[in-house]
Amino acid sequence: MGESEIIQLIRDRDHRGMDQLLLHFGPLMRYVIAPILSDGRDREECLSEAAMRAWDNIQQFDPVRGSWKGWLTVLTRNTALNRARGRRDTPGELTENIPSPAPTPEEALLRQERLAELYRALSALSDRDRALIYRKYFYMQSTDQIARELGTTPRAVEGRLYRLKKQLRARLGGDSHG
Over 90: is that where the pLDDT of 118 sits? Predict the structure, then answer.
């Protein structure tokens, strides 16, 4: 079954869509979750939670804005990160004095502008270099895992990442030393 059929099943709220999602994209989702969560049971619960979030939020997927795998990867990664941070519920009276974690409109705009700059800088990199940055800092893969999968040494990966970070800092107007 193809990607578009799975998406349509989920949009139609057909339970087979969930089965097909896990069958065809479960390995990708597990690959994204693995570097973030170390406990096997936590990983499986996260996979279930991410699949449910895909089911519940399918209307947010827009093929014009990006690929299915990209959307699913981001959703899965964010689910794993939220689980890794843990959910700390604070008793009612204590929450009154805690400032909202939501950014102010000015902070949100500034963050959006910085993200746009970062995406422009990343898009100027070669596909290979951009993939390396994403694997390390977006998918949170270990240097050892990246080296193993690319058939190189961890030291070579670290050196390449160091040069890429320096290059990105220079493009973004940051400190180019170290």
Answer: no
Kind and range of the H or E run holding 82: helix 68-85
Q: Is the pTM of this model over 0.70?
A: no
Q: What's the start-to-end Cα distance of the chain, in Å?
A: 48
**Do residues 145 and 35 touch, judged by C-beta distance below 8 A?**
yes
Is the CB of residue 157 less than 8 Å from the CB of residue 132? Answer: yes
Ramachandran assignment for 86, one of left (phi > 0), alpha (psi -120 to 50 degrees), beta (any other): left
Separation of alpha carbons 36 and 136, rounded Å: 11
Output the six-digit token pair for 161.
Answer: 């990442």
Give the model's pLDDT for residue 75: 93
Report residue 30 CA to chain centroid gap. 12
Q: Could you tell me which residues come within 8 angstroms of residue 125 by beta carbon, excluding any fewer than 6 positions away? A: 133, 164, 167, 168
Q: What is the mean pLDDT of the chain?
A: 85
Rounding to the nearest 10 degrees, give the CA dihedral for residues 21, 25, 30, 35: -130
Contacts of 25 (CB under 8 A, 6+ apart): 6, 69, 72
| DSSP conformation class of 100 | P
Nearest to 51 by CA among 2, 10, 84: 10
